[in-house]
Amino acid sequence: MSTDGGDDGADHQDLPTAEDAVTTGAAADSADWDERLKGLPRLLRYALLAVNGAEHIEERLIAEVNELCPGLPHNVAWATSRSLEAAMALATELDRRAAAHSEPALRSLADSVRLVSLPTPRDDEHFQQHRRVAKALVKAFQVNSLHVEQKVRCDLERFTYGWAALPACTHFLPKKFSAAINASLVGHRLAEHRITAAKATLRLQLKEEEDSRKKREAEDRTETVKQEAVPDPELIPDRHLVVARLSEAELKNIKLKEILGPLKNVINTALPLVEVPPLHEARSVLQFEFPYAIDVIDFALADLVGRTTVRLRPLLIVGEPGGGKSRFARRLGEVLGLHVWRTEASRSDGAVFGGTDRRWYSSEPCHPFLAIAQGKTANVLVLLDELEKAATRSDYGRLWDCLLGFLEPETSVRYPDPALQTNLDLSQVSYIATANRLEPLPSPIRDRFRIVTFPKPTANDLDALLPAVIVDLAKERGLDQSWMTPLDGVEREAVAKHWAGGSVRRLRRIVEAILRERDVRALRN
User: Fold this and answer.
1) Closest by Cα among 289, 395, 288, 320 to 352
2) Which residues contact 320 (CB under 8 A, 6 or more apart)?
3) Do 352 and 473 share a domain, yes or no?
């Protein structure tokens, strides 16, 4: 097209036409120019040519249009002028023909013309045209990206999303470049950030693997040192057990020193195992205090027949409130000579009972080891009171789930304590739990306990219970039981009148009230 108003016909004689492009061989299908383009939609082919900076892209596109629409005036006009107006007119005509004749190929030609001709969008004039190409590019890329080699896929992704991002990036893009060229630039910047992020992720992964390898090697060395520091089994006295083993290097760890404190006396030390007392004597003592529960006493003590040291298999005592379950469990341990550690299940969770990790400021070992350290024996008794009331929330781990590792012989012999970060031998610890009912307890817990029902006393057990109750109250007062005379006939009748059986706790309160009244009368006289 002439710019000086002269003879348009004379100027047109020297400009290339669509027919000229055909005669130069540019009319060959764009898929034949590069093996990587085969099978790609036309729009993606031209996008890839733009990415690679191919020459004569417009001439090739003119040739393709001429093959499908021979002699199309709009194509001739674009071939001669190469103006944006002519390109948009050609694209509009191709869209019209695509709709009129149901020819999708013409629509892809129209979008390709826009792709190679549109400037970078800096105002609203060509925004809709640019947006249309962006939608077509994204759709074509999503459908075809998995079917091409990785390098081509990366180039197409860079161009496609670079084109889509152009409207938001015009403030830093060169004004002299077309939308296609700037799309490659923006896509390249996006890819750079992704590549940088991928490299950083890879470096972090490699560092974590290296740290993990070093940690394993350090643990292996530590384990070797531990094994060297462990007392020789031949030097451990009979009926003793080393519960915790730590190397000298670990004992010097500042954080571990804070955790250990008074626990150091039971580290790398052979602790004694309490031996089984004469069972008939233990039975007599318990029968005196719990005359109504002789079946439970026999059931519990039968577990020790033939043993030299005390270890009870997990025992769950179920019964109504007030029957004396908790007191029986405590007295059973005391009569057998065990140190008793009592845990309120309703106030405990897995994180507390099982020990907290050394990284926490409140770190401490598991409760069974604390019981061992307090009792200085390896076979203590852990009493879990009201087990059915343990919290069911799992924020810090349920107590029920945590207990499984302690109740199983296979895992209790090498319990991994999170605070000490060593395996503890808790195989000789006995566990007795009490519960008012079985229903809330999960089946894995029930399966690991021997379950026995604890009876409630009746009025017929009153005379058998009174001596034990008075002895117990004397101990609470710090008195010798010889200073506390038994109840007389009137006092006994008063107790019988107000207690008809049931709660031993209520019986204790009644007897305690009568003893206080006795003290008041003595002061008056």
Assistant:
1) 395
2) 436, 456
3) no
Are residues 439 and 464 both part of a single domain?
no
Same domain, 504 and 394: no
Single out the residue in 426, 453, 480 at which a domain terminates. 453
8 A C-beta contact, residue 316 and residue 433: yes
The residue among 149, 169, 197 that closes a domain is: 197
Q: Are residues 394 and 497 in the same domain?
A: no
The CATH number of whichever domain residue 316 belongs to comes to 3.40.50.300
**Cβ(273)–Cβ(241) below 8 Å:** yes
**Into how many domains does the chain fold?**
3
> Is 3 a residue whose pLDDT tops 60?
no
Per-residue model confidence (pLDDT) at position 225: 53
Longest dimension (CA), the chain: 146
Q: Which of these ranges, 136-140, 407-411, 487-491, has the smallest mean pLDDT?
A: 487-491
pLDDT in tens, 97-119: 999 888 888 999 999 999 998 98
Return the SS3 of 452. strand
Picking from 317, 321, 322, the residue whose alpha carbon sits closest to that of residue 295 is: 317
Mutual angle of helices 104-117 and 127-144, in 10-degree steps: 120
Domain that holds residue 511: 459-524
Q: Which residues neighbour 221 within 8 Å (Cβ) at sequence distance 6 or greater? A: none
Residue 8 has pLDDT above 70, yes or no: no
Q: Which amino acid is at 417?
A: D
CA angle 75, 78, 81 (to 5 degrees): 150
| Separation of alpha carbons 231 and 241, rounded Å | 10
Tokens of 360: 């926490």
Do 134 and 163 form a contact (C-beta atoms < 8 A)?
yes
Q: Helix 127-144 vs helix 42-51: angle between axes, to the nearest 10 degrees?
A: 100
User: Do the domain assignments include residue 103?
Assistant: yes
Using the predicted structure, report yes or no on whether residue 363 has a pLDDT greater than 90.
Answer: no
Predicted confidence at residue 174, as pLDDT, reads 80
**Are the CB atoms for 57 and 50 separated by under 8 Å?**
yes
Looking at the structure, tell me whether residues 164 and 30 fall in a common domain: yes
Distances (CA, A) of 245 to 80, 124, 324, 354: 91, 77, 39, 18
